[in-house]
Design a protein that fits this description.
By secondary structure, the protein is α+β, with helices and mostly antiparallel strands. It is built from nine helices and eleven strands. The strands form three sheets. Strands 6-8-9-11-10 form a five-stranded mixed beta sheet. The model has no long low-confidence stretch (mean pLDDT about 85).
Length: about 375
């Protein structure tokens, strides 16, 4: 949970930093754009005065400086209109066909100067328009950076979790191997010495169960190859196991199609998923209630639902039930559902989630598997 909290803190810091950068950038750019707008208006006013001087010039007037001012505007689009709305002159306007509409838009924007009964219309230069758009481009770049950074953090977190899972699984399987081998040998000795004892077959079943658990842990640490298997049989195995090891007050019912539903999967690991869901249901019902397993064949996918009438899950906890370490029990590591999710989603490319849950009424977990 500490790692999760650290990731959440880093994400918050990154988002705050991105917002701060965006706000500062927008403010600075706003002031710069306003200053450039005023500077360009001043240039247009000088240009308009030069046009006025040219109109007032006579044969003795030296128009060299005036011409330099008029010809010096190479960036700001300018259109000159007479009192009748006819265009008399233009500068830095490429679209001569749509010049009238362009001039009207300038007038509507209020970018005009009146000189000698003429209307000098002007627009922002290309440089100013680009500068106005740059903050939004910069904001997009910052947001992309934040998303990439968060994705990298989550990927590193997932990689770290994968290493923990693999290490824990292999070590658990290794540690269980030696005592299980010894127990198997002792059971065989007991069978030979006490062939009529009714308890020894039960002991043998429990030892085989331990062996199966060790096998599951060893497969968790690798990538087991899925094969065609009957989902009906997998669910039946789990129900038989739960029936023998839970209170008679727990009733387990099933609802299957009239045919075998065959899915590519690792049956041993998938049994573990259903067992975890059923054990959680028994805990939620506190040893008394009903568990219903539903299997549906929808053609392109197979759906399994495990429903109980236990105490349910609070809404604020639903999103955390698959998080490693999260548990509402007094005892437990909070790894069962996270393991179940890993098996379903990473090994079988399926989906597992809480379909519905209501406090005091029960919970339904849903698993969706591709055929």
């Amino acid at each position: 949970m500490q790692w999760t909290d650290r990731i959440r803190q880093v994400k918050i810091i990154l988002v705050i930093a991105a917002i701060a950068i965006a706000v500062i950038s927008l403010l600075v750019s706003h002031y710069l754009v306003n200053d450039l707008k005023q500077e360009e208006r001043n240039k247009v006013e000088v240009w308009a005065q030069a046009l006025h001087a040219l109109n007032e010039a006579d044969e003795t007037t030296d128009v060299t400086l005036i011409s330099q001012v008029l010809e010096g505007n190479n960036t700001i689009p300018v259109i000159v209109m007479d009192r009748d709305g006819n265009i008399t002159d233009s500068r830095n306007v490429e679209d001569t066909v749509g010049m009238v509409d362009y001039a009207r838009r300038m007038v509507q924007a209020g970018d005009t100067i009146v000189v000698d009964h003429q209307l000098v219309c002007y627009d922002e230069s290309i440089l100013l328009k680009r500068l106005s758009q740059w903050p939004y481009v910069q904001l997009g770049i910052v947001m992309v950076f934040v998303v990439v950074a968060i994705f990298a953090l989550l990927s590193s977190k997932k990689a770290e979790q994968n290493k923990v899972w693999v290490g824990m699984s292999k070590e658990t399987a290794h540690q269980l191997g030696t005592p299980i081998s010894s127990l198997m040998a002792w059971v065989e000795i007991l069978k030979e010495n006490y062939p009529d004892d009714d308890l020894i077959p039960e002991m043998d079943q429990d030892v085989k169960r331990l062996q199966r658990i060790a096998e599951r842990f060893s497969k968790i640490g690798s990538l087991p190859e899925p094969v065609d298997a009957s989902m009906n049989e997998v669910l039946d195995h789990v129900i038989d196991y739960m029936d023998r090891r839970t209170s008679k007050k727990v009733e387990i019912t099933r609802d299957y199609p009239g045919h075998d539903v065959v899915v590519k999967m690792n049956a041993s690991l998938f049994e573990w998923v259903i067992e975890n869901l059923c054990k959680n249901a028994v805990d939620a019902m506190e040893g008394s209630g009903k568990i219903h397993l539903m299997l549906a064949d929808e053609g392109s996918r197979v759906v399994i639902e495990v429903t109980d009438n236990g105490k349910g899950i609070r809404k604020k906890d639903v999103k955390n039930v698959f998080t490693p370490g999260f548990t509402t029990k007094k005892r437990g590591w909070g790894l069962g559902l996270s393991l179940a999710r890993r098996i379903v989603e990473e090994y079988h490319k399926g989906r597992i989630y809480v379909k519905s849950s209501e406090v005091g009424k029960g919970t339904t977990f849903r698993i969706e598997m591709k055929r």
